[in-house]
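hey so i finaly got around to running the thing on Na+/H+ antiporter from Rhodomicrobium udaipurense. pasting the sequence first so u can double check i didnt mess up the copy paste, my clipboard has been acting weird all day
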Amino acid sequence: MDTITTALVLALAVVLSGWVSRALPVALPLPLVQIGLGAAIANVADLGVELKPDIFFLLFLPPLLFLDGWRIPKEGLFRDATTILELSFGLVIFTVLGVGLFVHWLIPSMPLAVAFALAAVVSPTDPIAVSAIAQRVPVPQRLMHILEGESLLNDASGLVCMQFAVAAALTGTFSLIDATGTFVWLAAGGIAIGVGVTWAVTHAKNWFARTFGEDPGSQILISLLIPFGAYLLAEHFHCSGILAAVAAGITMSYAEQTGQAMALTRVSRAAVWDTMQFAVKGVIFVLLGEQLPTIGAGAAQVVRDTGHIDPAWLLVYVVAISAALIALRLVWVWVSLRFTLFRAALRGEVIRKPGWRLVAVTALAGVRGAITLAGVLTLPLVMEDGLTPFPARDLAIYLAAGVIIVSLIVASIALPFLLGKLQLPPEPAREEEEDKARSLVAEAALKAVETHKRTGGDDIEDAALYADVAANIGDFYRQRIRDKTADGEGRETVRRAYEIERELRLAAIRAERVEILRLRRSRQISEEVARKFVRELDFIEARLMSA
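ok and heres what it spat out for the 3d tokens, dont ask me to read them lol
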């Protein structure tokens, strides 16, 4: 009963965080609000939450990593693959070595292996936090794709590095040769298992749906179970469950390109995954706030053990580590940029050199978030003997939490300032590509309507009715083709016409919904009919709002 009560309290706190974030006069990142609510809960009630690392890792990380791999734009990932790999692997190793040595120098009582584990766990970035902070200012689309790709891969590389560091802390030994071989096995095996599990499950469910019909509820539940299955199977074979979850997500995005799922299944599944992502990330940050008093007390004791009597040194450590992370990232981004320009010059390409603002934005956009927090909370409680506490565990968790908070604050202040004055080049290629695709899709629809018209209707009346309806539908698609192939002033006129049409249709849909609800309140229609109509209008409005 206590466990159920705790889960309900955490879920309620996540819900309240959304309301509080919108009600505040000052725009604060949602994770900061959730941490504050967690701390408030700890001050009024003792939930008694004991975070067991293995269970915490299994519950929270697989679905988040899976969803990142599923939804990341693959064309941007491949187009900027070199830059993304430099940031997600090169920068991670650079950060682990640099920050790890710096932390050990700053806090001698923290073993070097634990310092490397801390550095590894603060290396992954969270682009969702960046997009939440910068949602009111223009973010270069290509930069966001790079940040998303970096986050997807550095989640895996950073957490794998943390596992090596923790193993070294537990055993007291580290062999580069053994680590290299282990890493190859972890990476290759994890990726293979993630791909295999997703491929097998999706083919099996597609066959079953074709043979016996599709049940949206089952399809959604299967998608929720895939990351856990891939993670557990990889861990069973001593491979990387982290990479298995990421690979499963990427494979899922390609498997879904067959379009075999029903539209209702896709819409419902997207809503379920959005809710899951919001809930899981929210619970992680609320748990951090709830654990802060206990973690802070343990961290203060470690600080006293270093010879500093004043626990205020904790803030000094957090600021120093955050500054080191920003400095190392700035250096790496600048060097990576120079290297990219140099390679382009060798190929004879002319690339416009980004301004200092864009370089600064890329450096400061390295916000730490849920993955960092989830990873650091999985540090072992005890050493291999089962009795000795893991050295400086509370201090490492406190420092990681402090880095998350500082990075959120710095980014929320600096990014709007830098992005607000950033001159963004136009991106006509994307608009032209979208127009071309819509035109081709409309042509395919016209062909399908003509084909179906010829095969439809068993008698003359039906044939005439098919012809009339097909003509109406054909006019709609032919108009779309004319609109999408217009140029110059015609294109601008079409764009404005679509805006007006969208505005009027939204007004009409909302009026329909008001009338349907009025009819239901006056009991002129049944609840079932009202629910069906409202759902149909919701789908149409959602499509118009995203257009």
